[in-house]
């Protein structure tokens, strides 16, 4: 019931901002989600005994997101700017060289994992019909996740990758892909005209598989940090990172597919 109530409240707000919100409000929504997820990430690695540089990491994450949205032509500069900044931060903040690589690498990974991957939704929004594409992505990802959750609970016996995620089952994984395809077909047939049906089904199938790797990737982080959920912000769902783990992998996959196969 908590899952249902949280969804009923959050989903209309998110969809409303995506479809009708001012670009500034849309950026604020994406940035808020990503930065909260980043905060949860740094909290998890702290539980594993790695301090990292959470404040600097979140500031750099915000700057990276702003670059994604406002000046994407300067994105390549971040390949040098972020690690250089983190090294300078370490020089002023720490003295123990034995943990230097831990602090720097864990922080760098957190930035790239949350803001680096999440920023693709800002790139998608800048495409023609991009806001509608994001809604399309959310619908088939949510449908796939829901199908995997309920089918996995009822029929799942064989584990998918128990060492990483004991609750993930092969039946749930198959249901995820089927739910993704059904949602993509219905969306394309009823209202989503930005992409031809065949491409909707192909990209949904690809994203249905890749999104599950995103789920497993976050599960791996949680297992390593010995936490059950990334946070407790969303009743019945855990943390924000728990809700966007699949989307972090799906966004780049969708954007790359669009650029390769749908850009004239």
List key phrases describing it:
mainly alpha; 264 residues; 10 helices; single chain; 3% strand; 2 strands; two-stranded antiparallel ribbon
Provide an overview of this structure.
The protein is mainly alpha-helical and 264 residues long. The chain has one domain. It contains ten helices and two strands; from the N terminus they run αααααααββααα. The protein has a two-stranded antiparallel ribbon. The chain is globular, with a radius of gyration of 19 Å. The model has no long low-confidence stretch (mean pLDDT 91).
Gist?
This protein has 264 residues and is mainly alpha-helical. It contains ten helices and two strands.
The total count of strands amounts to: 2
How many helices does DSSP assign?
10
Q: What is the rounded Rg?
A: 19 Å
Helix content: over 70%
Largest sheet: 2 strands, antiparallel
| Tertiary shape | globular
- The computed structural class is mainly alpha
Which runs of at least 5 residues are low in confidence (pLDDT < 50)?
none
Mean pLDDT, as a whole number? 91
What kind of oligomer do you see?
A: single chain
- The strands making up the biggest β-sheet line up spatially as 1-2
Portion in strands: under 5%
- Rounded to the nearest angstrom, the distance between the terminal CA atoms is 46 Å
Number of domains: 1
The sequence of SSEs as H and E is: HHHHHHHEEHHH
Write the topology of this structure:
Layout: H1 2-20, H2 23-47, H3 54-70, H4 78-93, H5 100-118, H6 120-125, H7 130-155, E1 159-161, E2 165-169, H8 170-190, H9 197-225, H10 240-262
Antiparallel strand pairs: 1-2
Helix pairs in contact: 2-3, 2-5, 2-9, 2-10, 3-4, 3-5, 4-5, 5-10, 7-8, 7-9, 8-9, 9-10
